[in-house]
Amino acid sequence: MGGALAASASLKALIPSPSLIASAARDGDARRVRPSWSAEDTSLKHGWPDKNGKIARGGELPTSAIPQAVLLAAKHDYLTREDMARIAHGLIDVLAGIG
Fold it and tell me: N or C: which end of the chain has fewer CB within 10 A?
């Protein structure tokens, strides 16, 4: 069990704080790009405002990993109920062809 707790603690250390995630969702910049590792795949590059208000660039996430990342963030309380509702409504709009 100690190993699982240590792994969980190290995972939390790698994930930005909930307030930073919420700020990025409101004020950030996300783009779908062609990753350097594949000519066929796509990835999501994200930027968020730094303390000076400039957009800081983050890493890339393969688009195929986005569903898993969102579920992980929800499970570990990095998304509020409001965030999850906004995601759900956005997905419904996309599926209905209006988003």
Answer: N
Cα–Cα dist 63/32, whole Å: 8
For the chain, the structural domain boundaries read 16-96
φ/ψ of 43, rounded to 5, equals: -140, 170
Q: Which residue has the tokens 């929800």?
A: 74
- The pTM of the full predicted model, rounded to 2 decimals, is 0.55
- For residue 56, give both structure tokens: 């800081």
What tokens were used for 73?
Answer: 């963030």
User: What does the CA dihedral 56, 50, 24, 67 come to, rounded to 10 degrees?
Assistant: 40
Q: Which two tokens stand for residue 54?
A: 């400039």
How does pLDDT run across 33-64, given as a tens digit for each residue?
888 888 888 888 888 777 887 878 777 888 88
Task: Look at residue 68 and give its three-state secondary structure.
Answer: helix
Q: Which of 42, 25, 24, 41 is nearest to 33 (CA)?
A: 42
